[in-house]
Amino acid sequence: QTRSLEYQAANQTEQVLTPETKVISHNNFYEFGTDKTDPRDNAQDFQVQPWKLRIDGLVEQPINLDYDDLFKAAPLEERIYRLRCVEAWSMVIPWVGFELATLLKKAKPLSSARYVAFETLYDPKQMPGQNNPFMGGGIDYPYVEGLRLDEAMHPLTILSVGLYGKTLPPQNGAPIRLVVPWKYGFKSIKSIVRIRLTDKQPPTTWNQLAANEYGFYANVNPNVDHPRWSQARERRITKGGLFADNRIDTQLFNGYDEVAPLYSGMDLKRHY
Amino acid sequence: MRFSHWQIVLLKGLIHLLCLGWATLVYWRAASDQLGGDPVEAVLHFTGISAFNLLLLSLTMSPLAKMFKQGQFIRFRRLLGLYAFFYAFLHLASFILFELQLEWRMLLAEIIERPYITVGMAAWLILLALTLTSTQAAQRKMVRRWQSLHNWIYPAAALVALHYIWSVKSDIVQPLIYIAMLAILLGFRKDKLLRPVKRRYRALTSSD
């Protein structure tokens, strides 16, 4: 179902990439089931055409994008990012996409805009977990996420339309998803239909479900444990099976130190 | 209905084959990286849920025996119980070897700090004690204490259920189904399980 994209390739990296087969078969996307392989197994008939993505709220210039526009909103480039899941595993993934800031600037945020709210498609016919409590993990759908405006405008924050040089497979959030590499994976919302600028902190799905376990910020932080497991270390998923020696220290902000100024003066233990 | 000697041997052979064969297959696939994106998580889930399945199956034998008035079902109980511990052993061993990769200090911290791991560890220790005293020799030697020790299977099963539902992120449907199954199996034994409670209640009321 995927097709190749034209993009500017990333520079060589010393990081070992997670093999494509693992990136597209190990997913948390409860709309298609809660087991890691469910999204791959259940999402293959997902229709991404036609698609509508709307950017509105506190902006001068609301934007509507159709499927084809998603790939023309900005020049596509490859970004190789570490992805750290809140469950203490991680991957290294070559995304293809563009900076979210590029799109937001086109919409011209009003000076009153402080936050950005994101929303996944709600379509229970295509996403059976959305109205089936046996499949959907007890979440209220649609899935929603949010960022502070300065986080959303940070050059590391991208909207991804592809990985490994091709369009996104449905299980990875086709046709367009967020990638915020210094936050736990659940912040990087998939299959987005709406981006809304607001003046209030928007609700976020996992925070609503268990506020003591998942905060609004969800910055990767080895010093703040999940109440039920440690976040100090992680298992890096690359190639190799059970005996792959892949346990490494988790780094503050997932190693993306350049975002630290966004949080200067904030108590990260309280704003987890 | 009555099983012949050979039917029992055959059924037991089948249990051995399934329990050992399945584990071998899964570990072989995990070791050779053919078990999805995260083979570590895959074996942890597989061994955990298999241990619970076998535990529930072993608790099904005596209700079956009563229902069909067929005492032979009891002859499978110990084997199923031992395989429940076999999978629980693999579960903990995989956690230490492949998840924590032998970081012992981390293991100790996890057992003390994480309630769901504390609970799982407690269940594991009970199952260990039952496994070590599962021989007929131990049964003869311990006489009446043997039965009271092996009644600990019920708190162990409850701890396993708690460990399971506590470990999931939000998808509690499957753990709830398991808890319902366990509740039904414990329901068959409600007289036995309530006896100590009743005894205490009677003692309290008669002393007034």
Secondary-structure class of chain A: alpha+beta
Oligomer: heterodimer
Annotation, overall tally of beta strands of chain A: 12
The CATH topology of chain B corresponds to Four Helix Bundle (Hemerythrin (Met), subunit A)
Helix content of chain A: 10-25%
Q: Encode the helix/strand succession of chain A as letters.
A: HHEEHEEHEEHEEEEHEE
**What is the helix tally of chain A?**
6
What is the terminal separation of chain B in angstroms?
Answer: 52 Å
Strand content of chain B: under 5%
- Helix percentage range of chain B: over 70%
Radius of gyration of chain A: 18 Å
N-to-C SSE string of chain B, H for helix and E for strand: HHHHHHHHHH
Element layout with pairings:
The complex is a heterodimer of chains A (272) and B (208).
Chain A: H1 20-23, H2 38-42, E1 52-57, E2 63-66, H3 67-70, E3 77-84, E4 89-99, H4 100-107, E5 115-120, E6 144-148, H5 149-153, E7 158-163, E8 166-167, E9 177-179, E10 192-198, H6 205-209, E11 233-236, E12 247-249
Parallel strand pairs in A: 1-10, 4-11
Antiparallel strand pairs in A: 1-2, 3-4, 4-7, 5-6, 5-10, 7-8, 7-9, 11-12
Chain B: H1 5-31, H2 39-67, H3 77-99, H4 104-113, H5 115-132, H6 136-142, H7 144-150, H8 153-167, H9 173-187, H10 190-206
Give an overview of the whole structure.
The complex is a heterodimer of chains A (272) and B (208). Chain A is α+β, with helices and mostly antiparallel strands and 272 residues long. Chain A contains six helices and twelve strands. In chain A, the strands form two sheets. In chain A, strands 3, 4, 7, 8, 9, 11 and 12 form a seven-stranded mixed β-sheet that branches. A five-stranded mixed β-sheet of chain A has the order 2-1-10-5-6. Chain A is globular and about 50 Å long. Chain B is 81% helix and 0% strand. Chain B is mainly α. Chain B has one domain (5-207): Four Helix Bundle (Hemerythrin (Met), subunit A) (Up-down Bundle), CATH 1.20.120. Chain B contains ten helices and no strands. Classes of the chains: A alpha+beta (272), B mainly alpha (208). Chains A and B meet through loops of A and α1, α2 and α4 of B.
